[in-house]
Amino acid sequence: MGNAIPDSAKSGDPSARLVLHGSPPNGDTASSGSPFVAKVELFLRINGLDYDADVDWRGPKGKIPWITHGNVVLGDSTFIIDYLKNTYRSTTKIKEPETPMQKAINTACLHMCEDNLMYGIIYYQFAHPEGFLVTKQRLEARTPVPFRWILPALAQLQGQSILHKQGLGRHSDKDVSFILSSSLSALSTYLGNGKYFFGDAPCETDCIAFAFLDQYLHDEACAAGGTLVKQFPNLKDFVDRLRARYFPEARPSKLKTAGARKARGGWTVLLLVGSGVSCLAAAAIVCSRR
Ligand SMILES: N[C@@H](CCC(=O)N[C@@H](CS)C(=O)NCC(=O)O)C(=O)O
């Protein structure tokens, strides 16, 4: 890993090699199974920036996405996009919000997606019975025996613990649908009949909204959430349009073919099991309150 820099770093060397680190797709998602990674990959494609990808969770903040760019190592999708805009200022094609209202809409969409719809994804993957069946099969396929027998249950407890603390996990399925639909409805209203959120050229809001909506529509673990999105035809058309333009079959996500850092596989399992065990106490609290 190169020298970590503070998130406030403004720009880097445009000629340096850029690597996007993240997770592979989930089901039929256009990009990574992490919407935050998908947001950055779409940004790179809209701007025609050259990049490599690899499957690696061990970023500077223990989260994905993160990038290495020459000696620069940076985590967090929003900081990464700011950094890339500054670094490639003269060549980026993405449209910037032009008015204070557009800036406010971008911020509102960011928080609806990253702080509301994101918990919906965790809900469908770990707390929704049908969604969890898909997640369970996925985890079993990726995990060697004997971890395969325990990991899905631990992961489910961890997911439920996160949802309980955040609050979404305390609602009925009907109320979860209501809460998520209110964000989807707002996104649908902001998009309206437009091709993109702010007119004819894509902007950062499009990257954010696409990443989360694509996850709802194309990760089969989130199928029940996909049904909610389909109630807003302009959102579904928006996702179809961006998939066709930026992730055509001939140019699939680089996370699809990226190799994982093999030496880290064992660590991943240990980390998952370790974090699962550490959340057993939290899970006990969840269960005792039911
Ligand atoms: N604010 C971060 C959020 C990134 C994030 O939460 N990524 C998830 C994957 S979807 C993650 O790495 N989770 C692992 C963890 O929380 O330990 C961003 O915008 O990049």
Automatic annotation (TrEMBL):
Residues 35-130 form the Thioredoxin-like fold domain. Residues 182-242 form the Metaxin glutathione S-transferase domain. GO terms for cellular component: cytoplasm. The chain crosses the membrane at residues 265-287. Pfam families: GST_C_6, GST_N_4. Keywords: Membrane, Transmembrane, Transmembrane helix. It comes from the Eukaryota. SUPFAM superfamilies: GST C-terminal domain-like, Thioredoxin-like. Residues 1-33 are annotated as: Disordered. PANTHER family: METAXIN RELATED (PTHR12289), PTHR12289:SF67. Belongs to the FAX family. This is Uncharacterized protein. It comes from Ostreobium quekettii.
